[in-house]
């Protein structure tokens, strides 16, 4: 591997590395050879480097690296810059500028999978790894500076000068006063994946007997057809689904519904807020026939026993609405299986696939997630014991998985809906809109042992025209389970395109996730506006617009103030919007551009007046 060292003082660090097997060292310094050789011990280190076959280059400016190396020799696997400094009494702003130019220069000479190592004195970096930690404005803000050049902080550890044989730290340009290395940290940066593509995406799907195409909602453009549940996938959501299925098959005869489930439904779900649905339109000239449209609607009808009745206009035979929406649940598909007579009492039927729901922005609120729905018909009077058997099986499997991953047994509980004392998360709240729920399945892990709802249990009279049977269904959020089992703090990480995520789960093995993007910078923007007179402000639409404009780079939206103007009655709202990525570089300039675009689109799509 090719290793580039910058800003060497007496070349003792480079000399310590030059003997490493399989490593070609290129050591550089800012001074001329005459100036550098006059420093204590430098001449001896330079001779050792040259004798070992290393390259020594002088008068190298770390902000213009490509000027010193031919195109064929620019692919460095590692770049080291120990204790960069502008010199003398340069303040934090000057040193930030130096680092910014340095990282941009590194991007031109670093191999695709390469690393940039930057050692800083204690407190300079401005990350939580510094102890004590400086105030942000008084630090070098290294993570934010690196993000501007497309780098993320992937690791940080103590810089142990005493472990480097022969290393002697010098000061700025090899001055006698050396840098203080006590508590110093080595920051390791890697390239980030490129920004997400925000161009419109069309998708083809089956509708009746024909293939139709539709434009995917922008916030879902990189989440449609990802294939996480396919046979060759090693994604943790598939592993959890397979483990749960295997466990359930030990207690019940099990049948996976393998038929292709339609991505969208038609009609209206009574009781469900329209702003929670992703509405779509077919591409021009691809409207389905009346017969096919009716069939799609039939698949979307909710039996009143499972949830809410369908829209009254549909029941009364009024014209079918032309709007389609992405499926928010797999319950209608289970209903279709029952209606078609393919439902075997006593057999556990398993359906799984992504479902889509517009929601507010929080680390655990997902506009798309993978649902696992299990449905079972049992004899009336035995439903409670069957529910307990079903839940015990799920608890045993998840407990075993969590203990294998973290060595800790989680807290898993079944709570009656009427006695549920915890605040509902978005998953549970939407499920309540779909119909009556008997039980919530909650799973708690550190630091939240009280539990988060990961599943709901429903019962309904059997639709096979038998008064002796009852249908039991359990809906599980596989994405929430994956986050809790693998220690993933942000749902967006499950959808990252960065290869380093799936590399942590070889052949579907579940492990504790270690983030490859540490201490990502965040950028706060407050926005206030007047709400149109006489209109209720749609907060979900506001959050969805933020998702779309930022490409899921908004991590938090909080209402800061609500004000009603005396006399006119006009209402003003102020929100704090926090931009932060969990898996890729987000620089200050890019975040500022998102903020401006968000403000423009708010006026256009939400009809608000900015203050």
TrEMBL record:
Name the record gives this protein: phenylalanine--tRNA ligase
Signal peptide: none
Record bears the keyword Glycoprotein: no
Catalytic activity as recorded in UniProt: tRNA(Phe) + L-phenylalanine + ATP = L-phenylalanyl-tRNA(Phe) + AMP + diphosphate + H(+)
Domain of life of the native organism: Eukaryota
GO CC term, one of those recorded: mitochondrial matrix
Pfam (any one): FDX-ACB
Domain FDX-ACB: 518-611
Organism of this sequence: Struthidea cinerea
Uppermost EC category: ligase
Family: Belongs to the class-II aminoacyl-tRNA synthetase family.
E.C. number(s) listed in UniProt: 6.1.1.20
InterPro entries for this protein: aa-tRNA-synth_II/BPL/LPL (IPR045864), BMT5-like (IPR019446), Fdx_antiC-bd (IPR005121), Fdx_antiC-bd_sf (IPR036690), SAM-dependent_MTases_sf (IPR029063)
Keyword Cell division recorded: no
Location in the cell: Mitochondrion matrix
GO biological process: rRNA base methylation; translation
Alphabetical list of SMART domains matching this protein: FDX-ACB (SM00896)
Keywords on record: Aminoacyl-tRNA synthetase, ATP-binding, Ligase, Mitochondrion, Nucleotide-binding, Protein biosynthesis, Transit peptide
One term of GO molecular function: phenylalanine-tRNA ligase activity
């Amino acid at each position: 591997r090719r290793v580039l060292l910058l800003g060497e003082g007496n070349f003792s660090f480079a000399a310590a590395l030059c003997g490493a097997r399989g490593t070609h060292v290129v050591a550089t310094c800012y001074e001329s050879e005459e100036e550098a050789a006059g420093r204590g011990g430098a001449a001896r280190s330079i001779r050792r480097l040259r004798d070992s076959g290393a390259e020594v280059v002088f008068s190298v400016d770390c902000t213009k690296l490509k000027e010193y190396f031919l195109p064929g020799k620019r692919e460095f696997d590692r770049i080291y810059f120990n204790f960069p400094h502008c010199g003398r009494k340069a303040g934090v702003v000057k040193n930030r500028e130096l680092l910014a130019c340095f990282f941009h220069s590194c991007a031109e000479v670093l191999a695709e999978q390469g690393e940039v190592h930057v050692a800083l004195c204690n407190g300079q970096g401005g990350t939580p790894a510094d102890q004590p930690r400086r105030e942000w404005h008084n630090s070098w803000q290294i993570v934010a500076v690196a993000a501007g050049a497309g780098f993320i902080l992937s690791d940080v550890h103590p810089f142990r000068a005493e472990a480097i044989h022969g290393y002697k730290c010098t000061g700025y340009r090899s001055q006698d006063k050396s840098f203080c290395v006590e508590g110093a940290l080595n920051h390791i940066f890697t390239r980030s994946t490129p920004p997400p593509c925000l161009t419109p995406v069309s998708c083809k799907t089956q509708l009746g007997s024909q293939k139709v195409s539709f434009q995917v909602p922008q916030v879902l453009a990189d989440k449609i057809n990802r294939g996480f549940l396919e046979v060759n996938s090693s994604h943790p959501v598939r592993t959890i689904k397979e483990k749960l299925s295997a466990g359930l098959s030990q207690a019940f005869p099990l049948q996976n519904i393998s038929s292709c489930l339609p991505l969208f439904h038609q009609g209206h779900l009574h009781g469900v807020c329209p702003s929670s649905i992703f509405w779509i339109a077919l591409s021009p000239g691809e409207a389905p026939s009346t017969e096919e449209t009716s069939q799609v609607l039939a698949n979307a009808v909710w039996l009143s026993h499972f949830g809410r009745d369908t829209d009254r206009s549909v029941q009364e035979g009024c014209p079918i609405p032309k709007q389609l929406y992405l499926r928010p649940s797999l319950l209608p598909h289970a209903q279709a299986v029952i209606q078609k007579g393919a439902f075997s009492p006593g057999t556990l039927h398993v359906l799984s696939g992504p479902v889509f729901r517009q929601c507010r922005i929080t680390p655990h609120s997902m506009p798309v997630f993978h649902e696992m729905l299990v449905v079972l018909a049992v004899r009336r009077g035995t439903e409670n014991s069957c529910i307990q058997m079903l839940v015990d099986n799920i608890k045993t499997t998840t407990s075993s998985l969590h203990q294998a991953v973290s060595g800790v047994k989680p807290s898993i509980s079944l709570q009656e809906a009427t006695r549920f004392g915890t605040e509902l998360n978005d998953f549970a709240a939407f499920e309540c809109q779909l119909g009556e729920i008997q039980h919530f399945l909650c799973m708690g892990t550190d630091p939240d042992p009280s539990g988060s709802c990961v599943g709901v249990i429903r019962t309904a009279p059997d639709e096979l025209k038998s008064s002796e049977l009852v249908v039991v269904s359990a809906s599980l959020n596989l994405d929430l389970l994956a986050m809790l089992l693998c220690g993933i703090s942000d749902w967006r990480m499950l959808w990252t395109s960065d290869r380093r995520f799936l590399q942590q789960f070889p052949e579907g093995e579940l492990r504790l996730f270690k983030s490859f993007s540490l201490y990502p910078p965040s950028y706060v923007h407050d926005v206030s506006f007047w709400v149109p007179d006489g209109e209720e402000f749609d907060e979900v639409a506001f959050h969805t617009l933020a998702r779309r404009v930022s490409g899921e780079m908004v991590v938090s939206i909080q209402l800061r103030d609500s004000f009603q103007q005396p006399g006119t009655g006009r209402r003003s709202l102020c929100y704090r919007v926090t931009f932060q990525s969990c898996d890729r570089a987000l620089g200050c300039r890019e975040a500022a551009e998102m903020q401006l675009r968000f403000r423009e689109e708010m006026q256009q799509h939400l009809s608000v007046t900015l203050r």
